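The material for today's practical consists of a large collection of protein records. Backbone structure tokens are a discrete shorthand for how the chain folds in space. An example says more than a description, so a record of this kind follows:
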Amino acid sequence: MSLMAVSGQMAAAQAVKQGPADRLTIGGYGEAVMSYNMYSDNFGIYSSPADYADSKGHGRFDIPHAVIMLGYDFGRGWSLGMEVEFEHGGVEAAVERENEEAGEFEKEIERGGEVALEQFWIQKSFMPELNVRAGHIVVPVGLTNNYHLPTQYFTVYRPEGENTIIPCTWHETGISLWGQAGDWRYEVQMIAGLNSTLFSTAGWVHDGSASPYEFKPANELAGAFRIDNYSVKGLRLGLSGYVGDSFHNDITTNTSDQYKGVTGTVMIGAFDFEYKTGGFIARGNLDYGHLGDIEYVNRRNSSQNHTTSSPYAHSLVGEAAMAAGVEMGYDFFSLSDRLSADGMKFYLFGRYEYYDSYIPAEGTTPNDWTDKHRIAVGVNYYPLPEIAIKAEYSHRFLKTPYNPEPSVSIGIVWAAYFKH
């Protein structure tokens, strides 16, 4: 789970500290990555794969995430948490709809990337078994959303399957009830629903939590939950899910008779686990999602405003999507008393995952390029518990006639408290 979630649990369990400075928690995490993709980055690689079979690769430098976290314990069970995230170096961009100009969309972009207020909540802790959190919160559906720090997975980038088909890190405004009793932890949320006009072939509902406006449309509400069990030493088992309507959750509600009663209900179920013993770690996930009223969602998305400044995806959406993956790693420094005593770790790891962001409705034309298998092998070196240097080789396998997509990546990551 995130540092901010850990901080929230600490605030719930600790007595009131003395002095304002002692009540402040500061932390964060981040990644800097260099990658070389040994395949073409042309937009036509899936529409005309034969034209790019022998294309040269392309290199990238990236800062996927740089996050600052702040927490404050007000006392008497009240606490504050916030998290500001800079993705890919920040952004200077906005989309607005000009009503006085026939509803045209205007967009200005000066720098790529994203800046997001990923968490901003007030919490009241009554007891370890009952805490109430309200504000902008992380939706803990799937393995990666609940455990998204770069020191909580082996690959250089976040696990690809979940990061493709559902929002990641998924954050919404709403209210959450959570608590822990014995070997069980639970969380139940009421949050703003997704927006079906932003769904796509390549990402299923991934972009549906976003809003290009200065507010988030909330015509539809949704529910999410997570349950974790720790009964077996070293093993955590997690079950999570989401359900909510998405069809009328845009800036404008479509009142056409053909769309009356259409809900576009999104349902997602996910199972995940983590097992640690000695120097060995294994993690895995299985996610499956279904989108209702798919014929109407696709009909409406294809008829949305198609101006170049429109924020809509204009993309066919699959009736379902899925992602499954497992990774295993072993810390070879655990075999040395001297190295393990210094807190250093050196993991050799492997990962396999399968995902498909577009499982079409019956009778709909398939897009076979969304059906992907991926393997990754590499190392994680921890000179300190808070810092890791990662390196990996990965290979995506696509169906014929699409070309394979191998790559190599190197990254340095960190996740730590500066003060707590």
Q: What stands out?
A: The first strand starts at residue 24 and ends at 37.
